[in-house]
Amino acid sequence: MANKTGDREREGFEIAEKLDQIKRIDENWYQVKAQSLKKESWYDVVLTERGYNCDCPDAHWRQRKCKHIWAVEFSLKLRQQVANQTVTIQPINLESCIFCKSQNIKKHGIRRNKSGNIQRFACLDCKKTFSINLGFEKMRASPQMITSAMQLYFTSESYRNVQKFLRLQGVEVSHVTVYSWVKKYTNLMEKYLEKITPQVSDTWRADELYFKVKGNNKYLYALMDDETRIWIAKQVSDTKFSADVRPMFRQAKERAQKRPKVFITDGAHNFMDAHKKEFWTLKGTKSIHVRHIHIQGDKNNNKMERLNGEIRDREKVFRGLKKEDSPAISGYQIYHNYIRPHMALNGDTPADRAGIKIEGDNKWITLIQNARKSSSVDRS
Q1: 3-state secondary structure (DSSP) of residue 198
Q2: Which residue from 374, 359, 356, 337 is spatially nearest to 87, judged by alpha carbons?
């Protein structure tokens, strides 16, 4: 019996090492491809209170841990090893003179503005003094005030309420200025972050919700990774069931550098059509489209409904948007993915789970300064 168990373990490891042999439906349900060459079939491996169960004959009749269960367990370990390989975005350490690029610099007092204090430096080589405000050049408000305003806006407050908050801090700006901050830095961070590939799972979800733009109904389509809950792609359309959502699917493939093995949606036909044209393939393992999901039970889209609830709560404060390309949507996507801790992820952000770690006490400043530095390198 020990030899049989060892054989099953070895065969399970060989299955896990192959591509397109295991499909993750959700965190408790996997499908493993049968190794028979007669016809293509899949066995369900489901996590229960007693451990994994498989519906293959070996597990059913012999009541033993089959190679398919071993394959799932090995696959989970391999995926965890990949997840530990993170991209770390660290706060910018300003260590060189802006004139001669020398690193022989020291702190040289504080430049005091109405909007905040900025550290000054002195270069011991060229003897010049300077201040560095990377990402916030020529801004009257301090980085702390600007990022506090963005945090307030994407959590619960309107532009005018953010303006009132800043006034209490001694910063006099209009609500239009707050909007310009959100627009400027959302565009800057979005261009930077789209270059970083998140490590997503093989199961994706999509759904839509309606909101108003200038009083007219629009539909926001969102596509999310099931395991990390990172919001991969989005699209705004005029209609619900007839909208062509293939651009969002193509955006997701480019962003993740892969296509899903399992795709979960409701029964809308435009999801089915886009899945066939963008995710389905004649080569390799075909992507499964799970449709007609329910609120309760094994086949549900509750994770997407949670994201919809986040957006809906924020949209109540928006009281409708003025433009389809409003920075509020892209900005909230950044906030959801990189800034907001999620209870369902034990306090991590989706980016943390997708192998993108943002460090620093103020993640907004870390992202903005790295994005500004990256844009400067791209232009040079």
Answers
A1: coil
A2: 356
Return d(Cα 97, Cα 128) in angstroms, integer: 9
**Per-residue confidence (pLDDT) for residue 303, from 0 to 100:** 83
Higher pLDDT, 278 or 313: 278
Confidence of residue 362 (pLDDT cuts 50, 70, 90): very high
The amino acid at residue 266 is D
- pLDDT reading at 29 higher than 70: yes
Tell me how many degrees the CA angle 165-169-174 measures, rounded to the nearest 5: 55
Could you tell me the pLDDT band of residue 371, with boundaries at 50, 70 and 90?
very high
The verdict on residue 15 lying in a domain is yes
Query: Which tokens in the block code for residue 210?
Result: 């309606």
Q: What is the pLDDT of residues 89-126, one digit of tens each?
A: 998 877 778 778 788 888 888 877 665 677 788 899 99
Distance between start and end Cα atoms, the chain: 66
Which of these three, 25, 50, 85, is where a domain ends? Answer: 85
pTM of the model: 0.76
CATH of the domain at 110: 2.20.25
| Start-end of H helices in the chain | 2-17, 57-62, 67-83, 143-155, 159-168, 175-193, 246-256, 269-274, 302-318, 327-334, 350-353, 363-379
DSSP state of 344: G
Whether 29 is covered by a domain: the verdict is: yes
